[in-house]
Amino acid sequence: MRLIPQPSNKQNIFPLFAIATFSVSALTLLLLIFHSSILKTVSTDLPASLVQLIDGRAITVNSQENLERHPEIIRRFVAEAMTLMFTWSNKQPALATWQDTSSLLTEEIRQTFESEMQFAGNAINLSNNTESLFIIKQLTQPEKISEGRWQIQISAHRILSINNIQQDTVPFIKRILVKAEDISSISLPKSPTPLQSAIYRLSEARLRIYKVCDIKDQKCTL
């Protein structure tokens, strides 16, 4: 009697394997298309927002807006803002420095702070030969006042000199109040100076100083 050979298992499995592979590939393609449409919708709907880096830098990306800031972002902003405002030299005179750095303050306190900035050096003539060096001794951790607002205490010294001869040392012990902003109102000129470039990079934190008062002033945060 002649036996009829039966189909091997491999021949039976191969069509099923091919069908299963095609089904998985089709499902994967559909999922990729679905995810792609979601990502496209998210990227077009969400406005530009802030990403805070652990080293204190801040960058702007497409994300959700918020008024939260990492403490290191706030400390870096206050430290660099004060240093830029009170650092003068022959190549970077006091008046030009103030005109650029005043954009880091709200309009409500610019006039008051300008007077304090000038009168702090009343022992010498604030000419182009006047140099100022700002040295920070202590900077506290930010304390949250309300949503998007913080206070920070700074202890520093301003060393004023004319023609590299020290004339006066002015203590700077203040309470700095800052607030978060949805967008930055500072733009970069076409041919920026190093100071203007530094101010623009600092403004990416979307913070602004809205009050500067004596460290003992209990009504400062009201």
Automatic annotation (TrEMBL):
Protein name: Uncharacterized protein
Membrane-traversing stretches: 12-34
Provenance organism: Dulcicalothrix desertica PCC 7102
Keywords on record: Membrane, Transmembrane, Transmembrane helix
